[in-house]
Design brief:
This protein is of the alpha/beta class and 382 residues long. It is built from 9 helices and 18 strands.
């Protein structure tokens, strides 16, 4: 009897919902295609707090070591910069060689200091933007930034209150910001940092980390050297034995470093049965290295315009757009944010679809920032 009443109730609810969605569909069908003229105050507030693009001035440059510099960026209009979660990145736009390049750099400064952001850049081999920043950029220069963006941050409802940070090389930048933030806000019970570099001179902010460890009983730091043997430092790479000594069960890992480090650690995590839900990692990607370079044609459709530029098999479509002086719509450049999501009209590609929805994959959408051409390509950009 009870079941029959329930069924009737459910049916009534279902019919009500159906009427509602029919009504909505009807309204949508007859609504104007023009954008609403009214600008909601909340939208003004959001764009005041978080403009999508900002002009900034380089107020200070600090040489951190032989090949790494920190840059302090302040808004040109002297307003506060948007708030960010520790571990987030900004996209930096640089104009050099007559081209426009956009690259993501993690913010290494504190979340409670919004007059300036600090980004820390290590010069990369063949890195156009890192070379420009480390050798040509001067104090008082003007730059354009977008963001902050990103998913590499601590979440109270998702992550354990005991965390292990594994940082390699310049991957320490966002981790530094995260550790300072978590210790200040007392959001976690314990933080263990394993920081791997080639030599002692490559360690960034060592005095600061040592001081934090002295003042906070719940923070420990271990420096690991891979190319210099020193009595007081462990030698080698982060491995299974080292992780087992940290009693990792139930703890959340934050991993940030070069791609080779992720690959090596992934194998260790699988071997140790550490579920993915306990692993967060910063996204970095390196160029496809290939000896045989083919050159193809890239046809770009965007808002009714058609542009044709050459594209190389060892460069992502975004890199080819940069070389072809075409302003590419990018933020993260590692296939995660979806900002460059484009429709592949024709051609074959080698791409990473891990961040795309299944429907997008079926409908041949790609992220050009992680897509390499294997033939002539035709795409439609957003
Ligand atoms: S720029 Fe973020 S997915 Fe391509």
């Amino acid at each position: 009897m009870k079941d029959i009443v329930m069924e009737k109730e459910q049916k009534k609810l279902f019919e009500k919902f159906n009427d509602l969605s029919l009504g909505r569909r009807d309204i949508t069908k007859h609504s104007s295609k023009d954008l609403p003229k009214y600008n909601y105050p909340v939208n003004n507030l959001v764009s005041a707090f978080h403009p999508s693009k900002m002009e900034v001035v380089v107020t200070k440059i600090v040489e951190e070591n032989e090949n790494t510099k920190s840059f302090w960026l302040k808004r040109e209009d002297s307003e506060y910069l948007p708030p960010f979660k520790a571990g987030s990145y900004i996209t930096l736009e640089v104009h050099t060689n007559g081209r426009i390049y956009k690259r993501p750099y993690t913010i290494s400064s504190d979340t409670n200091s919004l007059k300036e952001y600090r980004i820390t850049i290590q010069e990369e081999k063949n890195g156009i933007v890192s070379h420009y920043m480390c050798h040509e950029c001067k104090e008082n220069d003007k730059l354009t930034i977008y963001g902050p963006f990103g998913h590499f941050h601590y979440s109270l409802i998702r992550d354990s209150s005991d965390i292990i940070c594994l940082a390699g090389g310049s991957g320490i930048t966002g981790v530094r910001s995260m550790i300072v933030d978590l210790l200040r806000t007392k959001k976690v019970s314990s933080i263990e940092l394993i920081y791997g570099t080639k030599t002692v001179n490559d360690i960034l902010w060592k005095p600061e980390f040592d001081e934090l460890a002295k003042k906070n009983k719940n923070f420990k730091v271990t420096y690991l050297l891979s190319e210099e043997k020193r009595e007081d430092y462990p030698y080698g790479f982060i491995n299974e034995d080292l992780l087992r000594n940290l009693n990792p069960e139930g703890k959340t890992f934050f991993v940030s470093g070069p791609v080779a480090m992720y690959q090596a650690l992934n194998d260790v995590f699988v071997k140790m049965d550490i579920p993915n839900k306990f692993i967060r990692h910063e996204e970095f990607r390196e160029s496809l290295e290939t000896e045989d370079v083919e050159t193809y044609e890239l046809t770009i459709h965007q808002k009714g315009n058609v542009t044709v530029i050459p594209c190389k098999s060892n460069q992502t479509l975004v890199q080819s757009m940069e070389e072809g002086r075409f302003s590419a719509p990018v933020h993260c450049t590692v296939g995660i944010c979806g900002y460059c999501r484009s429709k592949l009209i024709s051609g074959t590609v080698k791409t990473d679809t891990s961040a795309l929805r299944k429907k997008d994959v079926d409908l041949k959408y790609i992220h050009p920032c992680v897509t390499y051409p294997l033939s002539d390509i035709e795409i439609e950009l957003p």
